[in-house]
Amino acid sequence: MPVVTPDYWQAACEHLQARDRVMKRLIPQFGDACLQSRGDAFTTLARSIVGQQISVKAAQAVWTRFAALPRRMTAANVLKLKVDDMRAAGLSARKVEYIVDLAMHFASGAVHVKSWEAMDDEAIIAELVAIRGIGRWTAEMFLIFHLMRPNVLPLDDVGLITGISANYFSGESVSRSDAREVAAAWAPYCSVATWYIWRSLDPLPVEY
User: HhH-GPD domain: from which residue to which, for each copy (predicted)?
Assistant: First the structure.
């Protein structure tokens, strides 16, 4: 799959460095590294379900086995799989249910993938959280990492809250409202600032 990077990244970095003292210090530390998107929507969401509540290493092992089952990873092909085969790949009974529900939403057109570009963030989140196994946090990660929406602020993300605490409050615990106040200076590029906050905790970029 080709790697896609956001065309707004440079403008966002300039904006953030001009508006925020922490960003002015953080952004230059990571050179040309930036957000990257690969894969298609169905695969990205299926991987996020597989990875829930297990380690990155375990998730990769299960995904490798599961992805080998259909000839190609599409919703229609997943719906043809046998439950026993999916379980044998390492998926729990609940995750099998979630992935089947995801496939049904995609195959039936209940999610409007082709319309997403014209839809606002909250409308896309509403479509995604109607799928079993996908909550707001997963939907927000999808907006950032797959659709590369520039202004997502995932306040349920532990890493974001931890990073704001470390970079802005000398490690003191912060509330969601504290985090929202800090992020007021980041708009309209909250996704970019969040990505740099994550990097301050773990220099290796996350990819979905």
Answer: 50-202
Neighbour tally for 204: CB within 10 Å: 8
- In a 13 Å sphere around the CA of 199, the CA atoms on its Cβ side amount to 21
Closest by CA to 167, choosing from 20, 30, 10, 17, is 20
Domain 9-36+152-201 fold is Endonuclease Iii, domain 2 (1.10.1670)
Closest by Cα among 35, 44, 42 to 149: 35
User: How many angstroms from the chain centroid is the CA of residue 39?
Assistant: 13
For 30, other C-beta atoms within 10 Å of its C-beta total 15
Note the pLDDT of residue 39. 77
Peptide bond into 6 cis (omega under 30): no
Domains 9-36+152-201 and 41-145 share a fold: no
| DSSP structure class, residue 51 | T
DSSP string, 67-107: HTSSSS--HHHHHTS-HHHHHHTT--HHHHHHHHHHHHHHH
pTM of the model: 0.88
Instruction: Confirm if 47 and 156 have CB atoms less than 8 A apart.
Output: no
Tokens of 167: 């970079």
Q: What is the mean pLDDT of the chain?
A: 93
Structure confidence at residue 206 as a pLDDT band (50, 70, 90)? low
